[in-house]
Design a protein that fits this description.
Shape: elongated
CATH topology of the largest domain: lipopolysaccharide transport protein A fold
Strand content: over 45%
Structural class: mainly beta
Distance between the termini: 85 Å
Number of domains: 2
Largest sheet: 6 strands, antiparallel, barrel
Order of helices and strands: HEEEEEEEEEEEEEEEEEE
């Protein structure tokens, strides 16, 4: 028992004292809480049960959490749930590196009151205050779905932005090199060779702004309007 307490105390000093030292300066570190932990002498690792990882407006709940004391890394898999600004996100697995101060996650799917989100892979960079998603990340809100090749979420602004965007809505279809949406706002912004087709008419420009309340569309920069005739019905 005394050996276990000694090991746990050393672990706490090695991992958490440096973290608390940084907190007052940058507030960019991850906090780990747990109800119970066990040390495995064979592997030299600590297994925490019902653990919570917290950082500002992100909380991750793990049924079990494996801590590699030597490598200063944390891993978990299974029924992982995260809360992110009103989104409840299911995660397949995660790993955290104290050296990089980054949380790597796989197989995300999230739902909220007015939004849903999914991605194959994500990296939460706590130093930069941004989460980067890859693997066809998709964001659905206000009847629109936007699929990216790569997307970012900035915690401070609660803003989503991504590259190679494809936009869909019933009766709508569009694309752009970049797309931006800020949670709670009324506008979806498409930039860079932006194109939007609605009811057979196609709009093209450098920037397209969609008012999500009124569904009005504003096109700017080298605007082109294609009036597509209706298709003839097959006889």
């Amino acid at each position: 028992m005394s050996r276990w307490l000694l090991i746990l105390g050393c672990f706490a000093l090695a991992l958490f004292v440096p973290v608390w030292g940084l907190w007052g300066e940058e507030e960019n570190v991850l906090l780990v809480r747990t109800q119970e932990a066990e040390y495995d002498e064979k592997t030299g690792k600590i297994v925490a049960h019902k653990a919570t990882l917290s950082w500002k407006n992100l909380e991750v709940f793990c049924p079990t959490l494996e801590v590699d004391v030597k490598a200063q890394e944390v891993r978990s898999s299974g029924d992982i749930t995260a809360l992110l600004d009103g989104l409840t996100v299911r995660i397949g697995s995660l790993s955290y590196s104290r050296k990089a101060n980054a949380l790597h996650v796989l197989d995300l799917s999230g739902t909220g009151k007015d939004m849903s989100f999914g991605a194959r892979e994500g990296l939460f960079d706590f130093l930069q205050g941004v989460a980067v998603f890859t693997g066809n990340p998709a964001l659905t809100f206000r009847g629109f779905q936007v699929v990216f090749s790569r997307a970012e979420y900035r915690f401070a602004e609660k803003a989503w932005q991504g590259q190679d965007a494809v936009v869909q809505r019933e009766g709508w279809r569009g694309s752009a090199k970049r797309a931006r949406y800020t949670e709670g706002s009324s506008f979806l912004i498409l930039e860079g060779e932006a194109e939007l087709e609605r009811e057979g008419n196609r709009l093209r420009g450098e920037r397209i702004t969609v008012n999500l309340d009124t569904l009005q569309v504003k096109v700017e920069g080298n605007v082109e309007i294609f009036l597509v005739p209706p298709k003839e019905e097959a006889q």
